[in-house]
Amino acid sequence: CYLTDAVSALGIDVAAFPEPLPRDGELSVGLIRAAFGFPEPAHAAAQADVPGRPPALCPGCPHRLVFKELSRCKAIVTGDIGCYTLGALPPLSAMDTCVDMGASVSMAHGFELAFAGREHRPVVAVIGDSTFAHSGLSSLISTVYNKGAGTVCILDNRTTAMTGRQGNPFNGETLQHRPSRELDMEGVLKALGIEDVRTVDPHDARAVRRALKEATSATDTLSVIVFRAPCVLLERHREPAFEVSSQCTACGVCITLGCPAISKDESTGQALIDRDMCIGCGQCAQYCARGFIVQD
Question: 274 and 242 in contact (C-beta within 8 Å)?
Fold first, then answer.
């Protein structure tokens, strides 16, 4: 569409596609084939009785509680490219933008400039460790250089999880999984002149909540929080599964974490935990105010 518009603007006639390409969203092989007039390939029809399986963060994902707390504090969250982009989906619903790698940091700076002099919700950028090394670092340098404010959350899960668990400069492993020189992330951040740099365990709900509250309340400074814990696909370590007591009051708070291991009994409304999926991370137990989620 972009190229067609550009050529047409030169006064050159452009033959129309049999089927126009969409002006937004993603392009698929099927859409491109249809645009060139090719028939849809033969395929089996989808079964009508297959339940929907929306994408979700893995059970035990270290990113989950960060998004839960960002949702609680009603932040404007500028997101980035990675598996953590799933934080945009319900029930977490804690990401408002996603454009390209590194854009989270620069967009947060832009939001802060646009809101200057006005009361506004906290603006928080969220970016993974490998994306930060790829292009987020340059955006952060620009923010520091221009005396920007706001909060940047670096979700350091020690890998490039979305595309195959490759190494990156901040986890000490090359793309070929060879040992390398690990960059000191906190050291790099402080070298840029950022004074408020803190490292937090993302599995600790209270620590996550406290760090975000303190960082977002300082409206005239730049704060960077490094949430560091390994991706569950790296260690593949399982603790004993959790279970829900029969005393469950069906408040539904644990359901709002969006963990695939947690569901709801349709007849009683009580929470259910799939023992085969649960890895024993204990995130849900921290949100059960009555203590009805216990480890087996």
Answer: no
